[in-house]
Amino acid sequence: MGKNKAQRTKNNAKPSNSARSAEFLGSAMPNFVGFSAVKDGGYVPVLPGLSLNQLNEVEISAIDSNFQVVFKKMNKKDATTKFKALQEFADLVKESPLQTVEAILPFWPKLYSTLAVDVEHRVRDAAQITHGVLVKKVGKSIATYLKQLAGPWFTSQFDPFPPAASAASNSLHETFPDKKYVDAIVYCQDEILSYICYNINVQTPQLLNITHKAMNLAPEILEAKYQRILICSLQGYCSYLKQAPHQQIEKTSSSHHQIINGNKFWKLAKHEIPLIKISFFNIITSLIENCKDILKDSEKKTITSIMNTLDENEPGVISAVWECMLIAIDKIDDWYTYVSIEKLVLPKLWRVLRSGGQGCASIIYPNLLPLISQFPKFDLDKKNLFFNFFDNMSQGFMAKNVLVSRSEITAIIKSYIECLRYTILLNNNDIDLCGKLVKEQLIPAIESFITDYTPVKLVLFNEAAELLRYWSKNRNSEDYKSYGELIVIFWNELESMFNRFMDRESETFEKVTVDNIWDAQIKLLTALKCSSNVNRKSLRIKFEDTDKAESKEQLYSQQSTDDVLVKEINNFVTKLCIKLINNYDRNTSKNIDPLSRLICQFESQFLFEEVCKVYTNGDNLLEFYNKTFKVWLGNNNAKVNEIVKIIFTLLQYMKDDDKNSVLNSLTSMNNSKVLNCAISCALNDKNMNDQVIKSWRKDDYTSEYLSRLTEKVISDNCEESKKVLLQSFKSCGDDFCISEQAVCGVLNVLCDYLTQSEDIAESLITFTSQLSLLIWNYKKLISATLKLFKTLFKMSNKDSLSLDLKESVQTSWTTGLMSIYHKITPNELFKLQEECMKIMYEKMYSNDFKTSDGTDLILNFLEASNNYNYDEALTSLIRFNNNIEKSSLDEWVPAVKNFILHTEIVCGNFNSVNPIKSVSLECPIKLSSEPEEEEQGMPEKMMRCLKWSLFTTKLINKLIMQLNDEYEDDEFESIIKSSLDNSSEQLRNILLITSLGKLYNDHYKFSCNAEAIKQIYVSLHFECKSLREKIPLNVWKEIILDSLDVDKYWTEWGSTFSLFLQYYSDDKIYFSEIKSQAREILSEYTTEDGGNSVSLIQDVKAVILAQLILNDDDDEGNTLSLNVLEKIIKRNQMDKEFLLFNRDISSVSWSEFILPLELVRLLTKSLQKVPTKMTTEMRDAAVIYLSSWLMSLNKSIAHHKDLKLQCFVIALSQLFCAIKNLLSRVTEKDFEEIRTGFVDEWNNIFADDINREIANTWMYYADLFNNETEFLTPILMLNYLGNAIKLLDGVIFFKESTDAPITVTSDDLIKFSLKLILSPIPSLQLSAHHALNRLIPTLVEQDKNTIEQENFDAKTLNIYKFEDTILRTQKIVDTILLDFKLCDTITCTVKPYTDSYTYTFGYILTWLNVLEMCSHAHADLRYQYGEILKNDYFSSLMNNIFRLMPAKMLEFTDKRTPLFEFVNLFKDQPLLNLNDSLTSSTLDHVVCWVYTNCLRYMPVLARQWWSEVESRVGSTMEKITTLYVSPILCREELTVNKLNDVPNLTIIVYPTVRELNAVYRMDDSKLELKMILPTNYPLGTVTVEPRQHAGGAANWKNSHMQLSIFLNHQNGSIWDGLMMWKNNLDKKFSGVEECYICFSIFHINTYQIPKLSCHTCRKKFHAPCLYKWFSTSQKSTCPICRNIF
Fold it and tell me: Can you supply one Gene Ontology CC term for this chain's record (predicted)?
């Protein structure tokens, strides 16, 4: 049992700490004792482990107290404490005076000896570093204590922890550099040897345990420490033996004998630790080498220990053992007498050889040759000894560890051949033994390697070949006569082996094995024929200044061959070939491959002549061909390729006539395989320059065949045919390898197919690209080369190609173009440039073209086609646009310009910038009777113009940038000027098109390609600015403005010219000049008296200038503008006709029309900018004039093509919007004066007629242009009318008006709007949606009145007016989205301007209107709406919503935080502006907003759908709601207290935790409840928790239950529920009885109090509750008293 820990003493704030205790002891100690107490176990008065033993002369006071403390820490158990103490000690040694450090030297050796062998490696490392610091500090003073330190210091150099060993070695060598190191070892050798001897023979883990008893070390730690000390001592001893002089070793022989004769020393040979065994054998090796006499009495032990360990399998140990063995057998003459060779040495050696060296072959086998040199000394049968040796060695070839290692098998093979060579050399006179070694060892080894051949086994073939060359070289020597016989034996045995393989191959081996065997056989023969360059002497570095004679001599020696051996090899190969030919009929397929390889490898005149003699009467090679190879080819042989190779090898040794005969016979066979092989062979390097073969390659038949081969490549994608064609197109010097006719034929076939076909395999394009790289090398330019270049250029424009293939093709034609540039004439080059650039520009006009890719491609072409001369490239680009593209631009640009000018006039912007110069009484554009025809295809024309501008501008910019890098400033300006000499029209077109693009983008965002046009325009905008900055200013001005009539362009282009000038220069100073002139003109105009003195043009200019300066905020300009307006109004009082009131606008001229038109615009801008500064007369005039002009519009409404009418419609729509916006601002402070009379006058007199006129005009034109989707101007006009529709007063259309000239009822407007909701024109859909929204508040009010009636019919509710549209669109949308799963990560993305988008968008807009009705309805009416929608419509809506939501949002629903890009889709109401572009993102936004409104206004229906769908869909819906919708709805519900002023009710809201506390007080009674909104509100149920209440809980349970039911099962908000709860309590406190069925005062649906009472018990019930009781119980009795009701 352990002792209980004592309580800490009071005020003992710090815990115990050994280091702090040591400091206290050190500062107070009077004496210091030595370290002998550690060993003696004496009394330790102050520091445990220290005593004064043998240190009486040391002055205790001389030891610094800091060192005493550090010494104390060094004796601690904790390794970290000792480590830090050593670091601290090193710092103290460095900082302390020398005298102080020298005083501690007597105590250091003992402490160092302990720390140097510490169990912790960090401590040992620190001890050595600290020791080095100390020795360096004290210098020679260490000499006194050197012998005490020598043992651990010397052996620590071999510490297994490298940093500690390195620190010990460094300190020792720094202290004793160079020769002094050996002197120091000699000086301390007795101490070193004693220390080593003790550690080897005496030291044990048990003794270490006694020494470290106080540390309580674990046994495994002690064992590890002992092993480490032993390793250090053994390696230290080995090092001593190597470094100490021989005489000194002899002097200390007694110490060596003491070590060697120890009981434990020889047992180390069998130690389990490899490092100890290695150290032991290294010691034996050193002893044998340096002092063999010491081992004289222990030779038997030595040899026995070595031989017992020969079969060790540890690589480190085996290396040491075999090194030791070699030294031993070399130094000890009679070593074999100490052991049994037959019983000990040979069994272990055979075991090692059979196992392939046990994974250490590279170590063992190089040592075998010295070992077998000892075999003659053995008293054994030599023949059996050698055969056993080689037998076991052969078995080692098949060892698993050998087969997987190249180094292992190489070492074994080389050793095997070396030992065989040495054995034969040793037994040269014994021909029988040597012959058997060849027959039974060498040949079987070669046969086994051939049978199971791998590339690494080639080493044996090379080594055997070297052996054979050695024998052949010395075959004539008197001393080695047997070598000649051995060679004969070798060839005979080799022939027998080859014959055996041929005889067995058809029966025994599979095809793959046969191929491998023949491969190995041929490799063997090749090795025998050719010397392998594996001699390391050939790897020497050779310098240029080497003596030439010497280099020639070396070359001669390397090239020298043994002619006799070569002849023997040729004879052997000839015999082999003959046998293969003879065996053709027996085994065709297996013999032709090796025959082909043999003939190609060993071809010679001798070979063919010898073979020919066998099959013909002489040496007629043609006859030999006809009898053999020709016959083989005629038999449809599968090995055609190999046979043809043999034939073409044979051709090299035939006469020219015979060659022609052979080639013609190949042609006449009409075999595609034969011809393919023949052409390939005819084009190889050997046959390239043969004149006969060259003529055959270029004949007509070969040319035609290559064309047919090309067609085969196209149809079959034959790889073999591709190789033949590629080989055929190689160049032969300056000439074609094939005929020019063949080249053109192949290229024409390829180019025609690639040009005419659509679906082209990428492999064919790759092949053509590869072929082209060969063609560009031809020096002669042929027509087919240009055709190929154009084809490749077209291919690089194909979008279907992969990026890598495009780059490859582009690289190919770029290389070709640079080659063509030097071979083509200037005119041909210009024509080529124009053709290629035309291809590129036509591609650029396509819809799927990316401008960035195209500019890089054409820039690359311009650079290469002009040899990277960039000024010529720029000139080429300008010339192309002037010559080729000008005709297209002359057609497109005027059409687009007129269209944009028409738009600017219609919208009132034409004269808005510089009316001083642009205003004219004539129409600025020529009026057309059929404007639709001119407008047709306008978006496409606009797109083409912008693309041309962007493409050309980018190219010019890039070329100018290259020129800027190439030339200095002055030279650059002149180069640019000359290059752009003819570019003025192009640059003006670029600026004009950019201006037109901006205006198109501003006006026609609703067009089908608006997004694409916007992207191109934005890029073009920046490119134009960049172009202006890159071209020098002088050059820019000269090109653009010098030939430009500014006044003329102001008149013709109007506001468009202002944009042109902005792109020309950013300087807008002319705008301020125009405005300053405008003030002067208006001042003069307003001061003139009399109408006759002012011309019409002056009136028009004055009205337009008045609009212009209204844009400023200065009072002076505004006053001038209003004065102009006042003057026109006064003039109208005198002349009622000039403003065209109640006139047909189409019948008046433009000059008559322009002043009233501009007056409308001036009134509009005045109402927008300065309504408070206008007089009452001016504001009244605006309303009166609008009413009159609308009558004029009604008379002219049929003339919709008239430009004047289009302008008038837009202007009046803007005026109406300005008046409505002003009326909406009358509540502001600055508008009090307006509110007094203007609003009443509007509402009482003008509102009805004007609203109806606007609605009628919109309905007329919307119906007229409903399906005119391709025309933009009518839609633009309808957009302005639609903006007016958004501001209609919906109540007016519900009034009955009998005296109004135009009667548009609410039903008319609803019916028409629901029709337009499915219009193919998106802006009409939006207008209809906005029109319905203006009517909805009144529709809801009607429904509210309807449900208040008793026994009302739900079918009369106005929401049924939307039913047909919802049902119609729902069927279509359901069909469209049928294939998409709910909440799948692949949702439906509906493309704009398609029928699918029209119906889907109309469907969603209709639901937006329905939900808008729900938003205006109270809880009771919303319940009725829900009942109507829930069955057939709402579930379909939810299904479609989750099929249309963005896929990315559905994919990332598992995130805890919402994706920022989707938050606003649920939070912000979509703007749905009429002029905005509709995209898939727009539909996504509307869909998400509809989902938010479904949860906001119809939560019960959403909750019901959520509970019924499958779990996967429900989970996704809940996650989306939690992430995106719930935070919005919770914030809306809880941010504002809507019942703040309700009596008896107090509300406290906690928005952050989604909680609400409600307290109801009545007299002394108090009722409190808490409502908690769930995180997935409103899908999750709202928790209602009762808090404090007066009376029992049962009294108020029904109230809480009714509130909970309302919140979770009705579509009301929490504020509606709280109000119902409060009313319920009010009634309860006022004495109203609750219903005895539902136990609530107010019915949950109708909110009626109980009215029906039982005649017997007088209890009251709700009518719906009672009806439900009767229908479910099947009785008509009272629920309480059970009497008949």
Answer: RQC complex
Contacts of 1176 (CB under 8 A, 6+ apart): 1233, 1237, 1238
- 59 in Cβ contact with 48 (< 8 Å): no
Rounded CA gap, 1171 and 1234, in Å?
9
The helix or strand, by DSSP H or E, that contains position 1501, with its residue range, turns out to be helix 1499-1508
Residue 542: predicted pLDDT: 43
Pairwise CA distance, residues 285 & 292, whole Å: 10
Q: Over range 670-689, report the average pLDDT.
A: 84
DSSP letter, residue 1649: P
User: Max Cα separation, the chain?
Assistant: 153
Q: Which residues pair with 1661 in a beta bridge?
A: 1652
8 Å CB contact between 1378 and 1429: no
Strand intervals (E) in 529-666:
none
Residue 639 to residue 447: CA distance in whole angstroms: 27
d(CA 753, CA 770): 17
Determine the Cα–Cα distance for residues 224 and 230; give it in Å rounded to an integer: 10
d(CA 944, CA 997): 11
Q: Do 1629 and 1544 form a contact (C-beta atoms < 8 A)?
A: no
Collapsing DSSP to helix, strand or coil, 51 comes out as: strand
Comparing 13 with 1193, the larger pLDDT belongs to: 1193
Give 893's contacts (C-beta < 8 A, 6+ positions apart).
945, 989, 992, 993
pTM across the whole model: 0.66
State residue 1624's pLDDT score.
Answer: 76
Q: What angle do CA 422, 424, 427 make, to 5 degrees?
A: 110
Contact 1664, 1420 (CB under 8 A): no
Report how far residue 156's alpha carbon sits from residue 159's, in angstroms, rounded to the nearest whole number.
5
DSSP H or E stretch at residue 327: helix 315-331
Give φ, ψ of 160 to 5 degrees.
-60, -20
Instruction: Compute the distance between CA of residue 1603 and CA of residue 1399 in angstroms, rounded to an integer.
Output: 41
H helices of 736-825, in order, are: 740-756, 762-775, 783-795, 803-821
Instruction: Give the span between the Cα atoms of 467 and 483, in whole angstroms.
Output: 10
| pLDDT above 80 for 335 | yes
Encode 1114-1169 in three state secondary structure.
CHHHHHHHHHHHHHHHHHHHHCCCCCCCCCCHHHCCHHHHHHHHHHHHHHHHHHHH
Residue with tokens 């100690």: 29
Q: Residue type at 882?
A: N
Rounded to whole angstroms, the Cα distance separating 939 from 1175 reads 45
Token pair of 614, please?
A: 């066998």
Q: In terms of DSSP H, where are the helices of 427-451?
A: 431-437, 443-451
Q: What are residue 1652's phi and psi, to 5 degrees?
A: -85, 125
First CA to last CA distance, the chain = 89
User: Which string of b and e fits 939-966 if b means at least 16 CB within 10 Å?
Assistant: bebbbbbbbbbbbbbbbbbbbbebbeee
Residues 6+ apart with CB under 8 A from 775: 729, 743, 747, 785, 788, 816
Of 1243-1247, 1316-1320, 1587-1591, highest mean pLDDT = 1316-1320
Distance CA 1586, CA 1599 (A): 10
In angstroms, the CA 623 to CA 625 distance is 5
Instruction: Find how far residue 549's CA is from the centre of its chain.
Output: 63
Instruction: Quote the mean pLDDT of the chain.
Output: 83
Is there a contact between 1091 and 1054 (Cβ–Cβ < 8 Å)?
Answer: no
pLDDT per position as a tens digit, 256-272:
888 888 888 888 888 88
DSSP codes of every residue in 480-516: GTHHHHHHHHHHHHHHHHHHHHHHHTTTT--HHHHHH
Q: In whole angstroms, give the CA distance from residue 1290 to residue 1335.
A: 5
